[in-house]
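Q:
Got a chain?
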Amino acid sequence: MIPQDIANTIVDPRAYADGKRIDHAFAWLRREAPLEQAQPEGFDPFWVVTRHADILQVERQNELFHNGDRATVVTNIEADTQVRAMTGGSPHLVRSLVQMDNPDHFNYRKLTQGSFLPQNLKALEVRIREIARGFVDRMAAHGDRCDFARDVAFLYPLHVIMEVIGVPEHDEPRMLKLTQELFGSQDPELNRSGSEVTDVKSGVDTIQSVVLDFMTYFNAITDDRRANPRNDITSVIANGKIDGQPLGYLEAMSYYIIAATAGHDTTSSTTAGAFWALAENPDQFAKVKADPSLIPGLIEESIRWVTPVKHFMRTATADTELAGRKIAKGDWLLLSYPSGNRDEAVFDQPFKFDITRTPNKHVAFGYGAHICLGQHLARMEMRVLWEELFKRLDSFELDGQPKNMVANFVCGPKSVPVRFKMH
């Protein structure tokens, strides 16, 4: 078994906010126990998959390692019991693509996949550039200092995805707040209670109340889009059919929720994290400022660097072997994406932020059938923002200590104060 202190660190939201603590834990595991079982206090045991190659091995075998059989996010026994009591036995409060296995995963993903293919996103680029320029202007209007995370990185991808989904601009603050309450449910500055989460029951109740608020909102939009379909993702989901039948209520609501949360939050985290890393590595900013053809490299390195999705869980559907270890049917596995993205066997100097890193085969978007649906849109949004911002940004530096979210599932910077010069 993994030593108890390291097992507890793997699930501790504060360790991810600290950054160094979690990096040290996973570096130790890759070296000493790359595939071993952990049992943090109050949790069922699970395998911790820390190496890049082993993560890919699990991700490419969707029939052998299921998403939906148990909780898809690491969950303690008490919370799992409470969720199952609420849902009538399911370990999931929502049932999105993330919680699905085939044939459902294939059929539901197919509904919107076309909208997110590179050739179909090209038509959006002109509009995305307009939005990006608007945010660069807004940054300039702050004078010479702002919080890049709160004033730019959170709001720009939010505006893009809400246009794509079909949520009106006046509802964007509400969508941002609900997203932060959901993914920041363990963070006293972001969660709905505004305080430390001390007991499991109130934590789960709070998350459930956020999910219900999302469902209430999108249920009204569904009614509207069935009556008045438009050219947006909500119309696709509202009028979509699987095997000739409309989507189930839970599945439709969950589809909206994942689009309205993961559709911007992960891009926001990566954008804020990239700016933070560039501030700490001015030589890298000088390179990309002098040569904009390095922007795609900056994007890939910042996705690797931040890795906004920290883990997903998988469940073995049969006895098998992975990296020489015997995995039993029903065993639970945690795929650690930050660990895979710092794997010394794959990345030279993994703790160095290097925009010229090539190849950069990070696993931040996952791999195989469950690879992130919005990856091409995310890359385009970041590319366009950097193209527009770097044209006008002369220099910048940190103006205080940046802070990460307190969370162990989806998280990134929540504050990146900067001082800058623009023309």
